[in-house]
Amino acid sequence: MAKAAGDDTVHDEDRYRLLVNAITDYAIYMLDPEGRVVSWNAGAERFKGYTPTEIVGQHFSRFYTAEDQAADAPARALAQAATEGRFEKEGWRVRKDGGRFWAHVVIDPIRSPEGELIGFAKITRDLTERKLAAEALRKSEEEFRLLVEGVVDYAIYMLDPEGRVTTWNLGAQRIKGYRPEEIIGGHFSTFYTEADRAAGAPARALAIAAREGRFETEALRVRKGGASFHAHVVIDAIRNDDGALLGFAKVTRDVTERVVARQALEEAREALFQSQKIEAIGQLTGGIAHDFNNLLMAVLGSLELVRKRLDYDPRITPLIDNAIQGAERGAVLTQRMLSFARKQELTFVAVDVPMLVRGMSEFIERTIGPNVEVSLRFPTGLPRVHTDPYQLEAALLNLVVNARDAMPRGGTITITAEPETRADFAAAVPGEAAFVRISVQDTGEGMDEETLKRATEPFFTTKGAGKGTGLGLSMVHGLAEQSGGRFGLISREGEGVTAHIWLPAAGAEAAANVASDAPARTPGRRGLRILVVDDDRLVLTNTVAMLEDLGHSVIAAESAKEGLEAARRDLDIDLVITDEVMPKMSGSQMAGRILESRPGLPIGMVTGYADLADQGRRLSLGLPRLGKPFTQEALASFVDQLMLAEAEPA
Q: What is the four-CA torsion angle of 196, 200, 201, 203, rounded to 10 degrees?
């Protein structure tokens, strides 16, 4: 039985030895009490590179790095194992070829039944791959941390599940204004406006992020000092592998510049659209007004001739007078339309604003009635302005009437003027004011923001049906623009309206021309041979009838081409009266060609429509102008003016 037992013991030892030697993932070997290798398995050979014959009997310290050997790490490891019963550590170890690997080491003491130390069992595992992976992960996390902390254009930080700040990067500090020690631990609702906090916006944002995984918005947020900014915000929920909510990642970007730029672009687009709309309406209005002017010319002229040739009849004459008054009101409307469209030809002179306003003050007071007080305030030495005095009178009267209508229970209208240099207008004349600002202020109801925006739109009116054309302010705007100035309104609801007209100050050359160029009153000539050219047959017939009634012989032409042919054919023509706006060839173009062959022939233009090219050509030729519609008296004076100019010595 003893022999059999001994045979079994040997057999068990062989099995354990075979088991240990077969293990290749662990280096399992024994050391004697001094640390020399006494056994070596296949795993040790694979990790360390030594064969059993190369390493058995050698000290295990050769597996340590030079640094660890110098620090006596091998002896300390054995001492700890001997005294504490176990040594365990991870560290760098060295292979036979000098290469390093990361090892997990366990050293256990081996003692006899009597407790005597007979050696050490050493188990080593190669964890290089895990170590490298962990190091790579650590490095990646460190790089990511540095990246996040180094970003300055985005606020990137974390919140716990309740919304308290747990991390804070440089971008968050720059955008929000808080240092890490000021905000970490604080609730992120600090960054919301008071109104958003009251509405529960912070909690709602976290709830959406938790439920849907993401929350995104653009809204106002608040910096440390209380200033608001436009922010683009993204909140992502962070969960562990089990799906439990760990917190939130929050990214905020300051998009104030982008929002402001977008708003500016939208405003510019709206302004462009408005400008294009007004320009289109202006073109349409100008064309309609021009044609309507011609119709009124025919109506007024014909009515005037009929009224002149009929004896007074109580049943007929008042009706004719009524028709004439209606046509005259229509003529005023067309002048407003042409002024809005900037197609009203203006007579520019140097205008003394205080003198002009005081000259029309009596008429203003009669117009506005007794419930409104008018106050005039003008500084001494105010420069003259370069504009049309008659159109300026009409513009001021429009503003005064509007002011009166805004004060149904009475009030005060204040008219002032002062010099002003405007950098956004043309360059100022050295030593002089570039512009004069004329202001008409009332104490009336004022305008709300929407009404103020639309106030200068053509045909827009807040007055009742039949009480306004909606062209009054448009006409003022047109006069200011055509004069090279600006027009603007300032108002708040309940605080009245102030209308400003900026007109250019007259230079020395314009200041010398202060007289009106209206035709001089003369007795009226008779017996002249006059060529009349107009493409509108109604106007042509009316003008011919007026001139013939004045005792002149008239040749009629319905186009500039016919007018040229008549002027070349009939050398007895004393003067030419022509319309300006005609197809194919304008009146001033025709006049230029006539004057090439017949220099000195008096030629006058009749038009109510201003085209810059034709106006420049007319002025260069020195051709006098009579505005449409005109009366027979004005036409007679115009003829006299043309003949007087022709008779004056050169």
A: 140
CA distance 384 to 70: 102
Sort 473 into a burial class: Cβ within 10 Å, 0-12 / 13-18 / 19+: buried
* Residue spans of alpha helices (H) in 425-535: 449-454, 472-482, 508-512
Encoded amino acid at 386, one letter: H
User: What mean pLDDT, rounded, does the chain reach?
Assistant: 80
Q: What is the pLDDT of residue 316?
A: 81
Residue range 125-139, pLDDT digits in tens: 988 888 877 777 676
Q: Please, which pLDDT band fits residue 514 given cuts at 50, 70 and 90?
A: very low
Q: Say if residues 69 and 93 touch (Cβ distance below 8 Å).
A: no
Chain centre distance of CA 311: 67
178 or 423, greater pLDDT? 178
Q: Which residue do the tokens 């503003």 mark?
A: 399
DSSP per-residue letters across 52-99 = HHHHTTSBGGGGB-HHHHHTTHHHHHHHHHHHHS-EEEEEEEE-TTS-
pLDDT of residue 646: 59
Question: What's the one-letter identity of residue 398?
Answer: N
Look up residue 11 and give its two tokens.
């057999």
End-to-end CA distance of the chain: 162
| AA letter at 237 | A
Beta bridge partners of 154: 253
Q: Determine how many CB atoms are found less than 10 A away from the CB of residue 257.
A: 10
The SS3 call for residue 229 is strand
H-helix or E-strand spanning residue 118: strand 117-126
Separation CA 613–CA 603 (nearest Å): 18
C-alpha to C-alpha distance for 94 and 49, rounded to whole angstroms = 10
